[in-house]
Amino acid sequence: MIKALVFDLDGVITDSAEYHYQAWKQLGESIGIPFDRAFNEQLKGISRMDSLNKILEYGNKHMSQEEKELLATKKNETYLALIERMTENDVLPGILPLLKQAREKGLKIALASASKNGPFILERLGISDYFDTIVNPEHLTKGKPDPEIYCKAAEQLHVQAYECIGLEDAQSGIEGLNAAGMFSVGIGKEDILYSANYLVDTTEKLDLNSLLIHANK
Q1: For position 18, what pLDDT does the model report?
Q2: 51/167 Cα distance (integer angstroms)
Q3: Exposure pattern of 42-72 as b/e (b: 16+ CB <10 Å)?
Q4: For residue 115, which phi and psi values (nearest 5 degrees)?
Q5: Given this model, what pLDDT does residue 45 score?
Q6: What is the pLDDT of residue 43?
Q7: pLDDT of residue 46
Q8: Which 3 state secondary structure label does DSSP give 7?
Q9: What's the angle, vertex CA 110, arms to CA 117 and CA 187, rounded to 5?
Q10: Which of 67, 58, 2 has its CA nearest to residue 29?
Q11: How far is CA 156 from CA 108, 124, 151, 162, 177, in A?
Q12: Annotated catalytic residue, options 8, 15, 90, 201
């Protein structure tokens, strides 16, 4: 019996991925590492520091941990300035009805995002009250695709991982959900999210009853 929904943030609840791209691109160019949207796909679903390490590796740059921390902070400051523009209109289609349906059925709801700005973004979107818990990525030892963040979400909700449906838009997230034992719902293209238990191409097609039917099979 499904008792909870576990959401990723970027690309699932809102499309803040564009703001991440703009912030990383600005930072990359400032240190002589230009990159495009194709490379940016590799940064989806992973932590800020892991993203920075990928960018530095891509540009063949070597920096000290202290320098990396300064760059990560600079990127986040740019990102925060960009997401200040976000409003309730930035919730992706289908997400608010899904949250409402989950509440009506008594399901618990968690946010399991690598973004440290999750609470702030939910506030900007006006949907914080729907969430019973938010996993703090700073308290984790491993990033996606490791299942730790999803196991922590289940623990904070006081349910078992197999009693949860997880929603992700990145293959690293789908792998983590599967490893945790959650029913994985991919949002995007089949060739990218090839190991999802259930797939929709857009959030607009998310329907709680359909998810529950497939998850409870």
Answers
A1: 84
A2: 21
A3: ebbbbbbeebbebbbeeeeeeeeeeeeeebb
A4: -75, 125
A5: 73
A6: 87
A7: 81
A8: strand
A9: 85
A10: 58
A11: 10, 23, 9, 14, 16
A12: 8
Place of tokens 């240190």: 31
Q: How far apart are CA 14 and CA 128, in angstroms?
A: 13
Own/partner contacts of 122-128, CB < 8 Å, gap of 24 or more, are 122/13, 124/83, 124/84, 124/86, 124/87, 124/90, 125/13, 125/14, 125/86, 125/87, 125/88, 125/90, 125/91, 126/87, 126/88, 126/91, 127/13, 127/88, 127/91, 127/95, 127/96, 127/99
Cβ–Cβ under 8 Å, residues 176 and 153: no
Cα–Cα dist 163/175, whole Å: 17
User: One-letter amino acid identity for 6?
Assistant: V
Tokens of 131: 């969430």
What are the angstrom distances between the C-alpha of 128 and each of 35, 63, 107, 125, 154? 34, 37, 15, 8, 18
Under a CB-based contact definition with an 8 Å cutoff, are residues 106 and 130 in contact?
no
pLDDT of residue 94: 97
Nearest Cα neighbor of 194 from 161, 163, 162, 170 is 170
pTM: 0.83
Active site residue 10: yes
* 10-residue stretch averages of pLDDT, the chain, 217 residues long: 96 89 94 90 84 94 95 93 92 97 98 92 96 96 94 98 96 96 95 93 96 94
Whether residue 145 has a cis bond before it, omega within 30° of 0: yes
